[in-house]
Amino acid sequence: MKFMKIAVYPGSFDPPTEGHLNIIERGLNLFDKIIVVVAVNSSKNRLLTVEERVQLLREIFKKFPAVEVDSFKDELLVKYAQSRKATAILRGLRTLQDYEYEFQMALTNKKLAPAIETVFMMTEPQYAHVSSTLIREVARLGGSVSGMVPDAVEKKLNKKRERKK
Ligand code: ADP
Predict the structure, then answer these.
(1) Residues in Cβ contact with 52 at an 8 Å cutoff, skipping those fewer than 6 apart
(2) Whose CA is nearest to atom 4 of ligand 1?
(3) What are the pocket residues of ligand 1 if the criterion is a CB atom closer than 6 Å to any ligand atom?
(4) What does the alpha-carbon distance between residue 20 and residue 37 come to, in Å, rounded to a whole number?
(5) What is the pLDDT of residues 58-69, one digit of tens each?
(6) Residues in CB range of 140: below 8 A, 6 or more apart
(7) Contact between 150 and 18 (Cβ < 8 Å)
(8) pLDDT for 39 beyond 70
């Protein structure tokens, strides 16, 4: 049997953006399977529940059998990766700020599990400004997030706003 190259792509995905999708789609050129893991973001201002994020990502990738969506809480990422037979952690890079954080995390994970490689993919310029944090802000203030998030996410955010009115 061929050895499957599996990567985990962890993040908050609150909400999933076109930037995330782009990383996953390009990641599929490198890996046989990508497991997108939604982490609980207790420290950030939450917009969507973990279940809503998982549901949206599953809907977005329903036609991609090589993409699986899961969630995890209070677990070491490298342990999770090992349990899923993943050999890589996929991450995206946009800014110097991303770099500093990612650098620390990659070195820590390397120390915890030397066999797992962190693989970084540079953002494509059209997504360089797209961040979940800003999208949450814009959505909260009633602005349009069109073009920055997939249609399913935009619909979900609009529905949430309608319900709040
Ligand atoms: P976290 O809360 O762990 O930062 P995010 O959900 O914000 O997770 O993002 C998950 C991963 O996707 C991170 O590696 C982040 O740098 C990357 N990412 C987010 N937005 C973009 C983008 N527009 N272009 C490239 N990578 C991105």
Answers:
(1) 156
(2) 11
(3) 11-13, 17, 19-20, 23, 41, 91-92, 94, 98, 123, 127, 130-132
(4) 12
(5) 999 999 999 999
(6) 47
(7) yes
(8) yes
